[in-house]
Amino acid sequence: MGKIAEEMGFNKTKDEKVKAYCAKCVLETNHQVLQSVDCNGSEVVGYYQKMPETIDWSNNYQIIQCCGCDTISFRHRNWCSENQGQIGPDMWDDGSSSQLYPHRSNATRPIHDFYSVPSGLRRIYCEAIECFNGKLPTLCAAGLRAIIEGVCADQNISDGPVEINKKDGSTAVQRKKTLQGKIAGLSEKGILSQQYAAIFHEHRFLGNDAVHELSKPTYKELSLATDIVEHMLESLYEVPQKADDLRGLRLKRSEKLKK
Ligand SMILES: [Zn+2]
Q1: Are residues 131 and 69 in the same domain?
Q2: Phi, psi at 204, each rounded to 5°
């Protein structure tokens, strides 16, 4: 290993304009660097005609602000001379790559504010979306299953009618306490439409006996399942609360008119 030289500076990239995805604007926008910590390094790896050959790198740790909506976030830009010409999903052809915090791109999902959802379920929902955005599909699927189980517990659903195949080739309906049974129970109570329950059953990571197999779902499957879970939370907890709020406002208004 050759001699390594590193130096750290401040605000060398301050006021620079960079393109970054904004989760609030839901598109890539101009961002201004408000503050930065900037590190440069190099290592001598050999000599050519008595001139040192080096590997160089730089890291810029930037606080950035969206020029559209003023949201402030964090960006880490890394550059290495060895990466020049390599083009990857997160890499530019000058050898630099950048990472945004919180993680976001046009493929990330926003976390909805489900104020009326029970706090335990809301926490699991947030964790599931964090796993989705953090590219942890197995844990995201586990989170979605936990939300379904939690909704069932909250709504006193412990089983549901499941069609089973008998040995003689005929089918019969049995009440089951498995996740599949509970999904059917949600549909039976009208909490989940039959169409949505069928989609859950179709996907192995949510239906049948595959619950314990930890099979890895695709992002498309996960995205669809997350859409359905969000829709279920919205219609079960948020819409009735909004209706209550509206009723309260109407009552207040009519009482004012009477006075
Ligand atoms: Zn923005």
Answers
A1: no
A2: -55, -35
Q: Please state the rounded mean pLDDT for residues 98-116.
A: 88
CA of 126 from ligand 1 middle (Å) equals 21
Contact assessment for residue 184 and residue 161, using Cβ atoms and an 8 Å cutoff: yes
8 Å CB contact between 106 and 82: no
Q: Write down the mean pLDDT value for the chain.
A: 87
Say how many Å lie between the CA of residue 26 and the centre of ligand 1: 7
CA 31 to ligand 1 centroid distance, Å: 8
Token pair belonging to 190: 């009208």
Question: In which domain, by residue range, is 202 found?
Answer: 119-244
Asked whether residue 79 falls in the same domain as residue 142, the answer is: no
pLDDT confidence of 121, banded at 50, 70, 90? very high
Give yes or no: residues 236 and 130 share one domain.
yes
Does a structural domain hold residue 113? no
Separation of CA 16 and ligand 1 centre (Å) = 16
The DSSP call for residue 259 is: -
Q: Is residue 254 part of a domain?
A: no
Per-residue pLDDT at 210 exceeds 50? no
User: For position 214, what pLDDT does the model report?
Assistant: 62
CA distance 198 to 152: 17
